Amino acid sequence: MSNAVVVLLLVLISLWNQPVLSQNQDQNQHVSITNRLGNGKSLSLHCQSKDNDLGQHNLADGTEFAWDFSVNAWGTTLFYCDLEWEGVQQYHFDAYAFDRDYVRCQTQCLWLISTEGIYGLNGQTGFWEYIYHWPN
C-alpha cells in the first residue's frame, strides 16, 4: 500500500473519531449547564473535549451555557468542564461521557449547578439526580 493511501486512511479514521460540534438542532446530543447558585453568584465555566475547546464563560445566576454535537462512531465522546465560583475552586466534572450518558441523557444532558452540588436530569425517569458534590 502506498504512503498516500496510508495517510488518507489515518486522516479518515482520525476524523471519524472526533465529536462534531454543531449549531444544528437536529444533532444527536444537546448539553446545557445552568447556574442555580442563587444570591446573584456568578459561575466561571470552561468546557472542552479532546478535540474541541468551548472556551471560558461567566454565567450570571439563572443563566445557562449550552452546545450541540454528534457523538463519535466509537462511543468515546467526552466533554468535561472546570467550574469555579465563590467558595469552590476549580471543580472538574464530566458534562457528557458516552458510556455514562447515552441512556441517561438520551438526546440531551441537562445540568443544574447549585450550592449543594451538581444535579443532572435523568431522561428516563424525568427526575433530577444529585450526581456531584462539592469538596469539603
From TrEMBL:
Signal listed as a keyword: yes
Sorted UniProt keywords: Secreted, Self-incompatibility, Signal
Main location group: secreted
Signal peptide location: 1-22
InterPro entries named among the record's database cross-references: Self-incomp_S1
Species, as recorded: Acer yangbiense
Protein name, per record: S-protein homolog
GO terms under biological process: rejection of self pollen
Recorded GO CC terms: extracellular region
Localisation: Secreted
Family statement: Belongs to the plant self-incompatibility (S1) protein family.
